[in-house]
């Protein structure tokens, strides 16, 4: 019996790393122990409320592209809730200044490509300034708000544009179903284009009136009208090719919204997006 208990304990110890206890993995030593604890506490609250795994992974360098490194770490690290392994992982790699958010399971629906762009747009300035603790706290605020919105069936996407309130560090729920007050500055910004259009119309009317009063000026059909008859004789004519100007314009395509996906080496489907900071 004693041997059996020892064997069982050994197996549990071997299995412990695969249970993925830690949710803030700071291999780059960017956070203090107090900051890590605060983030872990917030993540536990989100996980308990929404049954969604949340992981923050900080590395000095990675040996794969950010998306596949994040996917392998998540898939083989034992993260995720339920059969669909619901969860979201934020990866930061210091060597190449990369960041990437990986989504799995129901998180693919909750965090659309558009939504992730808005979240990243808010936290990247903090990452660039080296204010990592605040960047990740803000990130978790957004994660919780996105999950709440997903619970209501109103995911943040192209048809539900976001309005970010920098003072409260949170997104409004969208102008289509939540009222919001307009500040005096926003009112002035709304009126300014109207004033500008009126000024342009008045200026154009003034120019046309002045042009109509210039009776002595008439448009000439060609340069010959200004040459005295018999004073000019053309003896040679030659066309010289100088250069060609080519203008290129990128043709933008309309996105249909939603989340783009890829498969990690485990074969599991993921969504996500990232960039440089």
Task: Find the count of extended strands (DSSP E, 2+ residues).
Answer: 8
Mean pLDDT across the residues is: 78
Bin the strand percentage.
Answer: 5-15%
Taking the alpha carbons of the first and last residues, their distance comes to 57 Å
Main sheet summary: 6 strands, mixed
Helix content: 40-55%
General shape? elongated
Question: Secondary-structure element order, as H and E?
Answer: HEHEHEEHHHEEHEE
Major beta sheet, strand line-up: 1-2-3-4-8-7
Which terms would index this structure?
single chain, 277 residues, alpha/beta, 6-stranded mixed beta sheet, two-stranded antiparallel ribbon, 7 helices, 8 strands, 40% helix, 14% strand, elongated, disordered N terminus
Structural notes for this entry:
The structure is a single chain. The protein is of the alpha/beta class and 277 residues long. The chain is 40% helix and 14% strand. The protein is built from seven helices and eight strands, in the order H-E-H-E-H-E-E-H-H-H-E-E-H-E-E. It has helices at 2-15, 33-50, 66-76, 107-110, 113-128, 132-151, 184-212; strands at residues 24-26, 53-59, 87-93, 98-104, 164-165, 170-171, 261-263, 269-276. The strands form two sheets. A six-stranded mixed beta sheet has the order 1-2-3-4-8-7, with helices on both faces. Strands 5-6 form a two-stranded antiparallel ribbon. The longest helix has 29 residues, at 184-212. Residues 1-19, 173-188 and 249-254 have low confidence and may be disordered.
């Amino acid at each position: 019996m004693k041997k059996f208990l020892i064997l069982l304990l050994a197996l549990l110890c071997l299995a412990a790393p695969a249970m993925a206890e830690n949710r803030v993995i700071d291999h780059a030593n960017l956070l203090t122990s107090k900051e890590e604890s605060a983030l872990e506490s917030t993540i536990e609250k989100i996980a308990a409320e929404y049954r969604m795994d949340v992981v923050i992974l900080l590395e000095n360098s990675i040996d794969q592209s950010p998306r596949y490194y994040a996917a392998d770490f998540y898939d083989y690290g034992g993260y995720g809730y339920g059969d669909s392994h619901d969860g979201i992982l934020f990866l930061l790699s210091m060597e190449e200044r990369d960041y990437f958010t990986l989504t799995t399971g129901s998180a693919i629906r909750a965090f659309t490509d558009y939504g992730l762009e808005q979240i990243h747009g808010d936290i990247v300035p903090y990452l660039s300034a080296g204010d990592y603790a605040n960047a990740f706290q803000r990130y978790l605020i957004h994660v919780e708000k996105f999950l709440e919105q997903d619970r209501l069936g109103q995911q943040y996407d192209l048809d539900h544009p976001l309005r970010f309130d920098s003072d409260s560090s949170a997104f409004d729920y969208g102008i289509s179903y939540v009222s919001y007050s307009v500040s005096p500055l926003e009112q002035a910004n709304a009126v300014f284009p109207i004033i500008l259009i009126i000024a342009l119309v008045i200026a154009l009317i003034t120019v046309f009136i002045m042009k109509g009063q210039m009776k002595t000026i008439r448009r000439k059909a060609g340069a010959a009208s200004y040459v005295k008859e018999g004073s000019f004789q053309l003896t040679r004519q030659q066309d010289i090719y100088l250069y060609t100007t080519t203008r290129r314009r990128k043709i933008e395509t309309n996105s249909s919204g939603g989340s783009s996906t890829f498969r990690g080496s485990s074969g599991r489907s993921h969504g996500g997006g990232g960039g440089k900071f």
